[in-house]
Amino acid sequence: MAQKTEVQLTVLRTEDLAPRLRRVVLGGPAFDEYLAHHLDSTDTYVKLVFDTADGEVKRTYTVRWVDAEARELAIDFVTHGTEGLAGPWAASAKPGDTLRFVGPGGAYRPDPTADHQLFVGDESALPAIAASVAVLESGAKATAFLEVDGPGHEIDLPTAGDLTVHWLHRDGVAPGSTALLDQAVRSWTWPAGRVQAFVHGESALLKTVRPYLMDGRVARGDISVSAYWRCGVTEEGFRDWKRQQQDAVIRPSR
């Protein structure tokens, strides 16, 4: 397991990638300390540390990219107005602000020996999916099903791979239902050969897309699946839910 360390970096600049997706680029004297522990993973994540009236609170976010030469790293945030901690912080972040985080962690990276890469997710998974398609080798076959609010929320996904992107638009429907993603994946003409899948986003994906893929389509070792959020619950409620899921796996009730 990678050694984790706490560092504090400084905001260098921000960029709005889409109406609800903001990139914060960080650097500073502690960058080298982070770089010493950075992982060769496209879902590398860190736990952001926020001080609240109830003490420290941590939020998990993907490191979108690291530029060792420029001594910078980027984290992309989905913003929801004043909801939560990390989103509002990112929405108001400006050069000179600081951010503490612990990390890194993560293990997934597209396997170049797979015949096809499948990516499934909503906005919360866009940073990890974008990082993953960016490392695909020339000609690598890949398909992505990505759910966003509408056309204005689509982002560029640079890659050397042979990537087909299906943008699924909610068109005014509130985020949280995985029906669009589930239906799209089930309607997809399954490719020949070995498929590696990355399925991340709202928690219902674990009960919709995941069982479909694992029903003889994708080997257990070729699927990375995780919930990033849960519709209808607060961030703290989601963290409690995740702990319960982990406990159920560790101590099955049967």
From TrEMBL:
Which domain of life does this protein belong to? Bacteria
What sections of the protein cross the membrane?
none
**Molecular function (GO) terms listed?**
oxidoreductase activity
Q: Name one Pfam family in it.
A: FAD_binding_9
What InterPro entries is this protein classified in?
Answer: FAD-bd_FR_type (IPR017927), FNR_nucleotide-bd (IPR039261), Riboflavin_synthase-like_b-brl (IPR017938), SIP_FAD-bd (IPR013113), SIP_fam (IPR039374), SIP_rossman_dom (IPR007037)
Location of the FAD-binding FR-type domain: 4-111
Q: Which CDD domains match?
A: siderophore_interacting (cd06193)
The protein, known as: Siderophore-interacting protein
State the organism named in the record. Answer: Aeromicrobium flavum
